[in-house]
# Entry
Amino acid sequence: MLQDHSRATGDDGPEHSPKAQAKGASGTGPVISRALQILDAFSAQSPHLSLSELARKAQLPVSTVHRMLGELLAWGALERDAQGRYRIGLRLWEIGSLAPRGQGLRERALPYLEDLSLVTRENVQLAVREGTEAVFVERIGGSCAVPTLTRVGGRLAITATGAGLALLAHAPASVQNDVLERPIVRNTPYTITDASRLRGVLAQVRARGYAVSDRQLSLDTLSVAAPVRSPQGEVVAAVSLVVPCGSATPAALADLVLTSARAINRALHVPVS
# Structure
């Protein structure tokens, strides 16, 4: 458990005043908030960070970060590489893998994702919705598959990918409104950024049962996705197939993706022995 040594030593005492705690995001505040700020500094683009880089990205004093790194390292939340930089530790991955939406869902879906990958030799992905983003809990890349921007544990805008559109189409109206009332980033000239047009796309997804993202995230990819439902009928995930743009029609891919989604649906209905 992380301990706040400043209480014992008297260092950084002002950090614990009500006013200082309200400023947690700016570099002071409760110890847990500061630890989370440090962990949140890491990303796919910055997996290894020095002490000064961590302090800058976390918006915390170098002395505060240095003091907390010892406990984060001892617990296993962080590790140091050969160059002395810090990276996310294996212990944190072990804890994260216990998240029920990722672990149980992934285990049930994995055999069918592997089958789809074997048949198509393309990118197969499984995503869940977290707020207004799509989080990818599994990804299988074919040997000659087109490169994608997704990774396991990675997040992407829910409007730009096939999996994201499948999830958004079945999200509560409040979530849809939240997404569509915000500015939508244009990733390519084909990205749909008009809210009224996107509403029409979401209605089409619900009507035909699958979503299509044609060059909306990158110019060389076509993604087709279908929703995965829980035994209660709630959409809990989306399975998607990503192929080079122009290599297949969405309709042909939809048959494969829908078959995989139905198989995963059935697997989720089987009680765990």
